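ingest -> validate -> predict -> emit
validate: passed (alphabet ok, no gaps, 394 aa)
predict: started
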Amino acid sequence: MKITAQPVLKTVTNIHDIGAAAWDRCAGDCNPFVSFAFLSALEDSGSVAAENGWHPMHLVAEEEDGKIAGIVPIYVKSHSYGEYVFDWNWAEAFERAGGQYYPKLQVAVPFSPVPGPRLLVQADHPDAPSLHALLMRGLMALPEKLGVSSLHITFCSEDERTALEDQGFLGRIGLQYHWQNQGYQSFDDFLGALNSRKRKNLRKERRQVIEAGYSFAPLSGDDLHPRHWDRFYHFYRDTSDRKWGTPYLTRAFFELLHERLRDKVILVSAHKDGEMVAGALNLIGADTLYGRNWGTIDRTPLLHFETCYYQAIDIAIARNLKTVEAGAQGEHKIQRGYEPVLTHSAHLIRDPGLRNAVARFLDQERASIYASSDYLKTEHSPYRQTGQQGDDRT
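emit:
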């Protein structure tokens, strides 16, 4: 009986050294953010690079015949920008105590608070569980091997977080707000599921935007042209500048995104008086519409809600998509039909003192987030409750 050798782990600093076919065999086609097309567009456009604090160092499991069976997208970080799971206080406390928090390792999709798989294993591999275990062992060894303080896996799946906790990682949860399609056939059908007050408010908001003279078009594939991306990039830079953010994404990134994921990209364009005044970038997954970036030169109230939230719901219903994920944070999304869901991350910290302090903090934070989630679902849900009386459905 032939004994199959265990795959060899190595790190790769350029995604093209792995290649699209090998990467996507592991990543699958459900979540566009872990696809070769998306991540290579970040690297090739210079949006992700060592110069801006995101140095690629992907972990790869290579079998004896040279085939790649597992991948983890990893970046060496010299700061904590662009992550959306905040560890600034951990870094400050550690450095105040004489430690060096940066560089650190980040397993993530850069600049994208999108939940999804992070340990990417070929779906039809005959020994996928062993490959997951191998990748986890490789991750655990990397911080000491590279002499860095920590390794952080953000917006991973719940199953991954649980498995990593079993290996000694610290688990962390967060809150996002997602819209769930309950088989709606139209936006009005969705509105019928809301309580009367919320339903009237949503109708009023949509009507006010239309009566103010705005129109909207979801653009994809051949309908998208360089002029649209030029305009959207202007919006993106304006939004970053106003919010004191760092505009990591280059103009070239949007061009490459369109080129490589053209049928999975939808740019909702908002127009007034013949001019494009706002836009919202969305990506389509197997059953999810992912809202990503938004920008505008128009400060009109309610324009953001229509462009980002209501237009996304329209698209999801039309395409029979199960979920709309509208990005990080935002309790204001609840009254617009988006419900709280938990997100997950896992953290490996080398220094025992820092690890113990972070563990205590995460225990307290977790209790608070669970309580907030339960409260928001029970006390602030916009949906009609079973047996609710006095709802005129207008």
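Confidence is low (pLDDT under 50) at residues 388-394.
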